Structure formats: C-alpha cells, structure tokens
C-alpha cells in the first residue's frame, strides 16, 4: 500500500538531500527505471515490473553513465514530485515507479 505525499517543506528538502546522498550506481538504476517505465493511456506509470521495457532500460542505464550526479538527482526528483508516492505511514518517498527505491523524509 502507498500514500500520497503530504509533508512539510522541510521534509521535502530532507528527501531531496537524501536522494543526492545515494550512490551513483543506484541513481543510474533509478533513472533508467523511470525512463523505461511504461505508462497507461491516461499517462500514469505502470507500477508492476511487467511495465518495464528492458531494452530501453539497458539503453538508459548506459546513457546515465554520461550524466552528472546532480543532473540525475534533478531528473529523479522531477519524477518523484509528479509521482508523489510514499510508503504506508509516510516515512519514505518512492524514487521509482516500482516502489523499490526510496528515501527518508527525515
């Protein structure tokens, strides 16, 4: 189960800072997952891994090697602000459509 974001501005700052602290390899994976995720006819992300275009994922993972960490964080954060989904309890913000990568709001 997941919840929509409803936190303080400080919590969002914390989440973004925590995202920026992730290792480069994980940022690359998250970026590639976002870029390769399928969307339904209404533009919503398909949140099951069956909605992942594996060929595009591999391409985006390689592409991410040339993207600076700060730019990866910006692109991931842009997704996160649109996705606005967190775990049950609201402690961690999900970073990808599959809800397997997250960062704390604290």
Task: Please specify the SSE layout and strand pairing.
Layout: E1 2-4, H1 9-20, H2 24-36, H3 54-63, H4 69-83, E2 85-87, E3 92-94, E4 102-104
Antiparallel strand pairs: 1-2, 3-4
Helix pairs in contact: 2-3, 2-4
Q: In words, what does this structure look like?
A:
The chain is built from four helices and four strands, in the order E-H-H-H-H-E-E-E. The chain is globular and about 40 Å long. The strands form two sheets. Strands 1-2 form a two-stranded antiparallel sheet. Strands 3-4 form a two-stranded antiparallel sheet. It has helices at 9-20, 24-36, 54-63, 69-83; strands at residues 2-4, 85-87, 92-94, 102-104. It is mainly α and 106 residues long. It has one domain (2-104). The longest helix has 15 residues, at 69-83. The mean pLDDT is 90. 25% of the residues are buried. Helices cover 47% and strands 11% of the residues. A hairpin with a 7-residue loop joins strand 3 (92-94) and strand 4 (102-104).
Keywords:
11% strand, mainly alpha, two-stranded antiparallel ribbon, 47% helix, 106 residues, globular, 4 helices, single chain
- Which strand-content bin applies to the residues? 5-15%
CA-based gyration radius: 13 Å
> Which structural class matches the secondary elements?
mainly alpha
Mean pLDDT: 90
Major sheet attributes: 2 strands, antiparallel
- The helix fraction, in percent, is 40-55%
Q: Uncertain segments of ≥5 residues (pLDDT<50)?
A: none
Strand ordering within the main sheet: 1-2
Report how far the terminal alpha carbons are from each other: 20 Å
Label the overall shape. globular
What order do the SSEs take from the amino end to the carboxyl end, as H and E?
EHHHHEEE
What count of domains describes the coordinates? 1
């Amino acid at each position: 189960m997941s919840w929509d974001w409803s936190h303080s501005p400080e919590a969002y700052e914390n989440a973004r800072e925590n995202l920026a602290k992730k290792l480069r390899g994980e940022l690359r994976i998250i970026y590639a997952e976002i870029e390769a995720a399928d969307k339904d006819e209404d533009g919503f992300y398909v949140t099951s891994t069956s909605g992942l275009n594996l060929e595009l994922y591999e391409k985006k993972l390689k592409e991410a090697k040339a993207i600076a960490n700060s730019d990866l964080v910006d692109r991931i954060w842009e997704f996160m602000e649109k996705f606005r989904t967190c775990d049950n309890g609201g402690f961690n913000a999900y970073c990808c459509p599959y809800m397997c990568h997250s960062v704390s709001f604290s």
